[in-house]
Amino acid sequence: MKRVSLAWQIFIGLILGIAIGGIFHGNDTVAHILQPFGDFFLRLIKMIVIPIVVSSLIVGVAGAGDMKQVGKLGLKALIYFEIVTTIAIVVGLLAGNLFHPGTGVDMGSLAKTSISSYVETTKETQHNGIVDTILSIVPTNLFESLSQGNMLPIIFFSVMFGIGVAAIGEKGKPVLRFFQGVSEAMFYVTNLVMKVAPIGVFGLIGVTVTQFGLKSLIPLSKLVFTVYGTIIFFVVVVLGLIAWLFRVNIFNLFKILKDELILAYSTASSEAVLPRLMEKMEKFGCPKSITTLVIPTGYSFNLDGSTLYQSLAALFIAQMYGIHMSIGAQISLVLVLMVTSKGIAGVPGVSFVVLLATLGTVGIPLEGLAFIAGIDRILDMARTACNVVGNTLATIIVSKWEGKYDKEKAEAYLAEISGGGHDSKDHKYVTES
């Protein structure tokens, strides 16, 4: 009997979770029963992410060599991130202007959700300022950063340590071998953790549907359809065009990432797929030194789905209140989002925190966020899947930009996952000539 693939197992968990949630909508007892299944899976993921990022980065950077090379690589990645996320902000605004999802919405029919926790986080973050945010990338206490899961300071330390290992030559070889062993062991642990992914998905989606129900989407259905439609357009057309310019077939990327996309969508968690993305991009011809730097950093600076949503949601709230935003005001919104979406990277509930930090500066009532907070989880699922595609594509493009992309390895991997394991014209990946 043929074994059911992980993608199908996750999909079955998703459907069962939706069904249970729909049947027991409003039943807090069922939600409490389902919650531990999702929490258990997310805890397992959080357990493995930092050891994988640290060990893989140290091995990757030590292999890359000197600081100049790493700096050049990081700069290229940041330039790409800024260009693509700015395009995402503009696409979100264009969709808002074209479809007017907030026009005619009856605010009296909408349920309000408390956003007090996001307001507190925003106040703390805004108090820091951009200079403080940049300084916070350098950890004063590595173990504090590790315990709090602050990814940017962890990445900074790992890069510096990797450069140090490379600089001491032969003396660094035993250290490098140790972290290579840690990295390989953690990827084995990742494969074990993924076996419980369908159960985690079942619990997480079940709780979401039980609490909010599908009926809660009806008053805001125009916003939901606009967000989903715009994200699909952005991924297929905009990222597809960027991929094509670099001779990459975006649809084959979907084929490689089918398990991760379903998992990211159903858990609304970028962390849930980060270890697997790093593993798959390495198999797909991207060198370890690039994969281990671009993907974790991308989760702080290259959130395409999140930035697109932020501009669209800001326009939605303005339309809901009947506020006309001129072209100048919308350009101001783009400029503010370009800064705030990077300045508070890695903060919990980042999309909401960015919106709270942005809306006031362009004259949009912050209270409008309370109307969409209830369905944010449904929107977050689409944003997360978009972020996954954006970060994997960024890794491939930076690898090609550096001239280190292994095309033959990529084609062999695509042939392997296509089930043939043999050469075929249908298995071409990066051949769009």
From TrEMBL:
Q: Any coiled-coil ranges, and where?
A: none
By what name is this protein known?
Answer: Proton glutamate symport protein
A Pfam family (short name) is SDF
Q: Where in the cell is it found?
A: Cell membrane
The domain of life for this entry's organism is: Bacteria
Give the record's membrane topology. Answer: Multi-pass membrane protein
List GO molecular-function terms, semicolon-separated: symporter activity
GO biological process terms, semicolon-separated: dicarboxylic acid transport
Q: Fetch the InterPro entries from UniProt.
A: Na-dicarboxylate_symporter, Na-dicarboxylate_symporter_CS, Na:dicarbo_symporter_sf
Q: Which Gene3D superfamilies match?
A: Sodium:dicarboxylate symporter
Q: Which GO terms describe its cellular component?
A: plasma membrane
Keyword list, A-Z: Cell membrane, Membrane, Symport, Transmembrane, Transmembrane helix, Transport
Q: Which chain regions cross the lipid bilayer? A: 7-24, 44-65, 77-99, 151-169, 189-213, 225-246, 312-338, 350-373
| Principal location | membrane
Keyword Cell membrane found: yes
